[in-house]
Amino acid sequence: MMKPIRIISIYxxxxxxxxxxxxxxxxxxxxxxxxxxxxxxxxxGFKTKYPENSIESIKFLIKAGVHGVEIDLRTTKxxxxxxxxxxxxxxxxxxxxxxxxxxxxxxQSINLKGSDGSKTSSKVxxxxxxxxxxxxxxxxxxxxxxxxxxxxxxxxxxxxxxVVKQTQFFIADPLNTKLxxxxxxxxPDLRITIDMLGWWKIEDVPLFAARALDTNIxxxxxxxxxxxxxxxxxxxxxxxxxxxxxxHKLEKRFQRAxxxxxxxxxxxxxxxxxxxxxxLLK
Length: 282
Hints:
Pfam families: GDPD. The chain is an alpha/beta fold. The chain has helices spanning 2-34, 55-64, 104-108, 127-134, 151-160, 177-184, 205-212, 231-235, 250-260; strands at 39-43, 68-75, 81-83, 141-148, 167-171, 191-195, 217-221, 239-243, 264-267.
């Protein structure tokens, strides 16, 4: 009589195992469906963990599954385009003085500082290096903040590196139509992102600006969010990237941006938001 009982017990265990497996699969599929399609951009590389605007931070973000990175560009005395937010070297590097007064060889001799101000082994990267890195990951996006560079020169570099569809050019002034046109006329797929600043307060201006500048990407800092949100623009084919300043209550503020209709979020610590979105497909 023991054998039938043993067979029944084994059968029962198998049934329970299958049921639990199905439940886990269902829960996983449900969780996947709950993730949002909003893209995450990391502001100035990933300065929370790595030196600001460093190549190491970009490589880390790609591996982590973040969708894109925003970097700042400046030009050296001899015309080399490097990653640097400030016009001076002191805050983020072991060097001193103005970027525009230094040659590329001078820049290569200094190191980047960490967020605590200490010297690191990281070097100041140039744009050529960054473009070669992201080209290996076609889904990863690059947002270029043109601090002090010739936009046409940068655009040509992007075209020559064959990363046009991965790159967008950030323009901080919606009235700078000349700059916008100088970029887009080089290649039909070059994208510009326009920061609408306080113009978000006037309902029809953002859409008008997007049409006038021939772009489908607008930018909104958190303190300029319109109460009406961005869903109306979304229906017109316009994507809105929003910037969340600081890391306090980041998830709550992300959810607010999502409800308003944001297509992408830029922040200093996107890793805190990764569990809420569908990660980068490498």
